[in-house]
Amino acid sequence: MYATSLIDSPARQGAGGVTALTPLPDPARSPDAPRPRAPAAAAGTVEGTWPLEHQAGAAADARRITRSRLDAWHIDADGEDAVLLIVSELVTNAVEHAKAPVHLHLHRTEADGRVWVGVSDGGPAPRDGEWTRSCTTDEHGRGLAVVAALAEHHGTRTWTGGHATHWARINPAGAGD
Q: What is the CATH number of the domain that holds 140?
């Protein structure tokens, strides 16, 4: 279900249209929580990382941060809706199914306008969050299907120590198609 935990870009395409993939850096080398870059910062890219509280309001905070970045990047309404929904789903999953810390990563490639969203967490929680435990099984569990439907690519990168980054690459220009 998940793609390999690597990021691809048109700039890395090789012979025959095959995309060369570049792994994310290992955050275990840093004293802080995972803060991957996607793909590595280069000319023509804009990115940022924001820590989020591991609590129910994290998804709303992440949407506010993301909306501000998308507005600065001049992403249209359809593209903004797709990116915001993906951010909401990934952050909600981190709060409900993983341990702290939680970080939101946003990256945009200026050349093609694609947006990369990553949500890093502290790895699987010993039990689901309060909201998930309060629901019947038919009331939750569709978040990753939503991400898969809206993203060009998505996946998970597991880091040393159990931390994980769940990511999606979106083409906001094609979101309304």
A: 3.30.565.10
